[in-house]
Amino acid sequence: MTLAVTPHTQVDRSAGVTAPAGFRAAGVIAGIKPSGKPDLTVVVNDGPEYAAAGVFTTNKVKAAPVLWSQQVLTAGKLKAVVLNSGGANACTGPEGFQDTHKTAEKLADVLRVGAAEIGVCSTGLIGERLQMDKVLPGIDAAVAVLGSTPQHSLDAATAVMTTDNVAKQAVLIHPDGWSIGGFAKGAGMCAPNMATMLSVITTDAVIDQPHLDHVLRNAVGKTFNRLDVDGGTSTNDTVLLLSSGASGVTVTPETFEAALTTLAADLVKQLQADAEGVTKHVSITVKNAATEAEAVAAAKVVAEDNLCKTAFFASDPNWGRIAMAVGNAPTAFDPQLLDITLNGAPICVAGGKGVDRSEADLSGTEIDVVIDLHAGSASATVLTTDLSHAYVEENSAYSS
């Protein structure tokens, strides 16, 4: 599947982190997961540049790998990232941080670089220490099979999956001779306040670290932060962006931000489509708000409201629930001017009943909600999903 950016540029989901020049990756079975599925990923930047940036969870409870990666990124460069699924290494105390440090040291030793040049990410059950007797040999196994083919990219994206059903990756090849690729994982506990669960993005463009950091934050704010599956901001949320500069093409921050935003938006659409128990893909647009921040806040209240989410699941055009949710948002507007449109049907007009509910057909997978506050000129869109039987069953059947 591709998403048009310009007549000459497309997002392609057949490859990911290894598509940009200068990167190798691998995903292997380390034995961390009892299921025996792939659970350890390594992404290596072979240079010649090593600029890197990251955004992390705003949750006060931060996992050890988040604390580690935040610390090493103060230097603004990474030569490799190691990620594991099957254990979050969150709420594990000083010992958990030591485990993260050992993980970074192990990969650094194998690659003959410094531990302070290694990013670490983990995902899985909170509160349990990692099985280091599986993690450390797993790093050896991953480094032994590093490569830059599309299969290596897919393997890397697969080994970070937890409750995800499919791997999520994408690449954008720019006509000017540089590219950007990445993978993401996340299906539940998704209400990112920086990123989603885990994502690694690579580029062979030449761009300095301060600009890399700036454009990443801007792009995340417009994409990953606009996905809200269930209101849960994870302890481990991380997005890392690595630049090899291997294309030799210097890119303006504006051009790079546009491409990064397009790539990230595609990854977010894949996350939405694979959310836990999803049967509906819901887009909530709030327009004519006083500020963009208020538009986002109103859309998020609707996205997280269980009564709205269950109505979406039932294909029920119950606009009263949406009006109720918007009324609880920290957003200034006149209720007598409120308009709500569901899949093109103006079902609420001027704060009251619009067309008959039967005109709002929500029977398909896609539901488009447009809320007009008539309070300004700002707008924002948040993506969410429905609250289904499957979501409840999946999240009550096991610890996550």
UniProtKB/TrEMBL annotation:
Catalytic function, reaction form: L-glutamate + acetyl-CoA = N-acetyl-L-glutamate + CoA + H(+); N(2)-acetyl-L-ornithine + L-glutamate = N-acetyl-L-glutamate + L-ornithine
Principal EC category: transferase
Subcellular location(s) of the protein: Cytoplasm
One annotated Gene Ontology cellular component of this protein: cytoplasm
Main subcellular location of this protein, as a coarse class: cytoplasm
Cross-referenced Gene3D superfamilies: arginine biosynthesis bifunctional protein suprefamily, ArgJ beta chain, C-terminal domain, L-amino peptidase D-ALA esterase/amidase
GO biological process, one term: L-arginine biosynthetic process
Enzyme Commission code: 2.3.1.35, 2.3.1.1
Chain ranges passing through the membrane: none
Pfam families: ArgJ
Gene Ontology MF: a single term: L-glutamate N-acetyltransferase activity
Residues that coordinate or bind substrate: T162, K185, T196, E276, N395, S400
Protein family according to the UniProt entry: Belongs to the ArgJ family.
Quaternary structure note: Heterotetramer of two alpha and two beta chains.
Protein name: Arginine biosynthesis bifunctional protein ArgJ
Originating gene: argJ
